[in-house]
């Protein structure tokens, strides 16, 4: 799919982000629950975090159920990249959902399917270029929030 700007290799447990600003470390976390279309509770061992998906805003009412479907089709632990913490201490980043070679950025999928719009601070995301491309394609295809109705 279009998110090949960021590659995931489960066997080596790394994600390579092709960006000049550096490559964030990938960790594997389990998704405990989906609080909303852009906020998850994730767990690794005894640690638990709230994760705000990076780069998305103005989610549709379908975003949460779509994300739940994607998580159901994913392994117990998923590649997770943290971009940082906000002022309230909530982590923000992205998780890759799906299986094997079909793992995709959850933020990118929401944007590509027109279930969200790109946030103004998307450039702080590790896969900012792919997120921008996903929204551009959704806008061009007139899907979801871009369908004009």
Could you characterize the architecture of this molecule?
With 149 residues, this protein is of the alpha+beta class. It has a single domain, classed as Beta Barrel (OB fold (Dihydrolipoamide Acetyltransferase, E2P)), CATH 2.40.50. 21% of the residues lie in helices and 36% in strands. It contains 3 helices and 10 strands, in the order E-E-E-E-E-E-H-E-E-E-H-E-H. The strands form 3 sheets. Strands 3-4-5-8-7 form a 5-stranded mixed beta barrel. A hairpin with a 2-residue loop joins strand 4 and strand 5 (47-53). Helix 2 (106-112) packs parallel to helix 3. It is globular, with a radius of gyration of 14 Å. The two termini are 27 Å apart. Residues 1-21 have low confidence and may be disordered.
Share of β-strand residues: 35-45%
Task: Tell me which CATH architecture applies here.
Answer: Beta Barrel
Secondary-structure element string:
EEEEEEHEEEHEH
Taking all Cα atoms into account, the compactness measure Rg is 14 Å
Q: Would you state the CATH class?
A: Mainly Beta
Q: What is the chains' assembly state?
A: single chain
- Fraction of helical residues: 10-25%
- Strand tally is 10
CATH topology: OB fold (Dihydrolipoamide Acetyltransferase, E2P)
* General form: globular
Number of helices: 3
* Low-confidence blocks of residues: 1-21
Number of domains: 1
Give the overall pLDDT as a whole number.
85
Please give the order of strands in the largest beta sheet.
3-4-5-8-7
Structural class: alpha+beta
Give a brief rundown of this model:
With 149 residues, the chain is an alpha+beta fold. The chain has helices at residues 63-72, 106-112, 128-141; strands spanning 6-9, 14-17, 26-36, 39-44, 47-53, 56-57, 77-85, 91-97, 104-105, 117-118. Helix 2 packs parallel to helix 3.
């Amino acid at each position: 799919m279009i998110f090949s700007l960021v590659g995931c290799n489960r066997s080596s447990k790394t994600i390579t982000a092709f960006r000049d600003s550096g490559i964030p470390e990938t960790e594997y976390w389990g998704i405990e629950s989906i609080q909303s279309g852009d906020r998850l509770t994730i767990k690794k061992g005894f640690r638990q975090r709230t994760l705000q998906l990076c780069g998305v805003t103005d989610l549709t009412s379908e975003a949460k159920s779509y994300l739940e479907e994607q998580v159901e089709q994913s392994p117990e632990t998923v590649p997770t990249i943290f971009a940082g913490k906000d002022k309230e201490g909530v982590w923000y980043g992205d998780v890759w959902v799906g299986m094997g070679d079909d793992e995709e950025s959850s933020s990118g999928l929401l944007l590509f399917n027109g279930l969200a719009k790109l946030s103004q601070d998307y450039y702080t995301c590790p896969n900012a270029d792919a997120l921008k491309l996903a929204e551009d394609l959704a806008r061009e295809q007139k899907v979801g929030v871009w369908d004009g109705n």
